[in-house]
From TrEMBL:
It comes from the Bacteria. Gene3D superfamilies: 3.40.50.1360, Homeodomain-like (1.10.10.60). The keyword Transcription regulation applies. Transmembrane segments: none annotated. One of its GO terms (biological process) is regulation of DNA-templated transcription. It comes from Paenibacillus glacialis. This is RNA polymerase subunit sigma-70.
Amino acid sequence: MDSEKQRLSIEAARLYYQSDYSQQQIASLLGVSRPTVSRLLQHAKEKGYVRIDIIDPREDLDILASELKNRYQLDTVQLCYSPLNEYEEIKKHISKKAAEFIHEIVQDGDIIGVTWGTTMHSVALHLQSKPLKGVEVVQLKGGVSHSQVNTYAAEIVNLFAEAFQTIARYLPLPVIFDSIEVKRMVEEDRHIGRIIELGRQANIAAFTVGTVQENALLFRLGYFNEQEKELLGRTGAGDICSRFFNTEGEICSEAINNRTVGIDLSELRKKEKSILIAGGQRKIEAIQAALAGKYANILITDQFTAQTLLR
């Protein structure tokens, strides 16, 4: 009798847990009643024929977030779970996480500075409306005017402004000028100066990080000559707001940096909330360098990127 009960309970467990049969289907197959199947399944668990492990990725995420926060001396780390270690999949999940976080923290009177790019566009698309008073949204860096790749610069600022029921403040200039003299002259315009100053005053900055790979957008658009591209490729680790830095987070070229329009990286260190939104294996070096430079006090990423950053 015991051996028959053992056989039936194991067979019922296999059909239920491995083959996804219903208890009624199992009852028909084994020639017993449905309540008997229920008792057989319970017997299988009690005897240890079945072990059920529940894996909650959130528990691991909390541990990873705490370790990242301590390792890189961050105020906050927000981790999302990505089912695949693949860039587009990771971007989808971190963008949603970032939008939820930003929605939660923005309050009346905040000034939000944003950058452009596909990650930031994805964040902007996920933002939920939050009626607030006195919020301002400002573009933190200039744009590109002759790219076949959409940077979504204006759309991102618009979407952020719509979410918080305010007006978008654009920075209608190329991100990098050919000469320092022309850039300085343009920045002297009082309207442009007002936008740049608003970016400095922003208490929240949301941005991603770029790479110095050959296919990087600014490399392809002719903003740099061959010597400059070689320099950035050799010494650079990444960029924020189109300002390029090395693995220590230090500016690679003051000459290029002085031609760049937008917020200085040193200003990001002063923000109440400086939010770096980035993930994926191809961005690891750039993220590490940005954290080494202390340009962010909040990191939003995924578990795969977090594990690599900790290694």
